Amino acid sequence: MLAYSPLGFGTLSGKYLEEPWPERGRLTQYPRFARYLGEPAKRATAAYVRLAREHGLSPAQMALAYVNSRPFTTANIIGATTREQLTENIDSIDVRLDEDVLQGIEAIHTENPFPAP
User: Fold this and answer.
1) pLDDT at 64 over 90
2) What angle do helix axes 59-69 and 83-91 make, rounded to 10 degrees?
3) Is pLDDT above 90 for 34?
4) 3 has which bridge partners?
5) Contact status, residue 9 vs residue 26, Cβ threshold 8 Å
6) How far apart are CA 68 and CA 102, in angstroms?
7) SS3 category, 14
8) Which conformational region is residue 97 in: left (phi greater than 0), alpha (psi within -120 to 50 degrees), or beta?
């Protein structure tokens, strides 16, 4: 599997949970992808961001590390607007998620199985 938009246009980084949004952010520039901003998506994103921070992880790195940990993933299309984001995304390859984090991710997914239709 080739993972397309593993950060959901950047939403899983948490940067769209509060205003102001990043000026050069994808959802700022491409509002037609508003599916990532509905209440179910915001609720799920907030839960994932909270889980990451509780475990001392960057939300973006947690999301990318999760995608990378799936045995069926052959490639992960990362996207970045800044050099800092690119570095953070690339460094996610070295992040290993412990069982508590994986269980937390699965619990959030069970509560929010299709948050961005």
Assistant:
1) yes
2) 40
3) no
4) 76
5) yes
6) 12
7) coil
8) beta
- Cα 2 to Cα 5, 7, 11, 65, 68: the distances in Å are 10, 13, 19, 14, 10
**DSSP annotation of 28:** H
Give the per-residue pLDDT at 94. Answer: 96
Q: Where are the beta strands (DSSP E) in the chain?
A: 2-3, 75-76
pLDDT value at position 26?
85
d(CA 90, CA 79): 10
3-state DSSP assignment of residue 110 = helix
Quote the pTM value: 0.93
CA 110 remoteness from chain centre: 16
Residue 76 has φ and ψ, to the nearest 5°, of -130, 115
